[in-house]
User: Fold this.
Amino acid sequence: MDLIEGLRSTGAVREFTDQPVADEVLARVLDTARFAPSGANAQAWRVVVVKDPAARARLRDLYLPGWVEYLTLSSAGLRPWSPVNDRAAEAAALATGTDQARNAAKQGFAAHLDEVPVLLAVFADLTQLAAVDRDLDRYSLAGGASVYPFAWSVLLAARAEGLGGVLTTMLIREEDEVKRLLGAKGPLVLAAVIALGHPVHHQPRRLTRQPVESFTTVDRVDGPAFPG
Ligand SMILES: Cc1cc2nc3c(=O)[nH]c(=O)nc-3n(C[C@H](O)[C@H](O)[C@H](O)COP(=O)(O)O)c2cc1C
Assistant:
């Protein structure tokens, strides 16, 4: 597949057919994704292919409360879990109206997470991350940048195999439990859980994204839009 076309049309896929994904295919996907960049080329990712049905069911159960919260916060007009959110506003939103979200969460991807053909838990080894912003007096972002390109490469390489998928971070909220479940110790932290499989709906599809000039400016953030 043409690279540009792939980059422009690889969207989140959350509905999969029952067709399994062979281990050889998944191995090829990971073998391509490992060429992703990382700070100091540390390649600090660790991947667990979660096959055990009981572990999968536990991941689903751990995922669902986060999804209910996401729906509740979204419907209250908040960006769920923004680091700069007013925590009191979040708490107030969560204190009301979760019933509707709970019902909505009973259907769809979250409720069927355990049935997804491939579930990959991606951990990051903190001892290997160059988190250059770790000492700033703000939310730290840079460390994840050494792992998420790998996760995205997994999705792109999967696409080339005719698969679709989605990168999820919801389970990070339950990191301690996920670590215990999957035997991840100490400095291994959960970066993502990636779902993969054969898409129900045909790809490519048209993605909704902001135009370049809405997020790009010249010389200063308040400079003229680029391209002009
Ligand atoms: C860092 C990150 C975290 C995400 N977390 C979740 C998640 O927890 N659950 C989920 O269903 N999708 C998750 N997504 C997928 C996004 O919702 C999706 O990429 C976005 O809405 C664009 O969707 P589209 O490709 O269908 O247009 C995440 C994506 C990224 C990049």
Summary: The pocket of flavin mononucleotide is lined by residues 11-12, 14, 109, 166-170, 207-208 (CB under 6 Å). The radius of gyration is 19 Å.
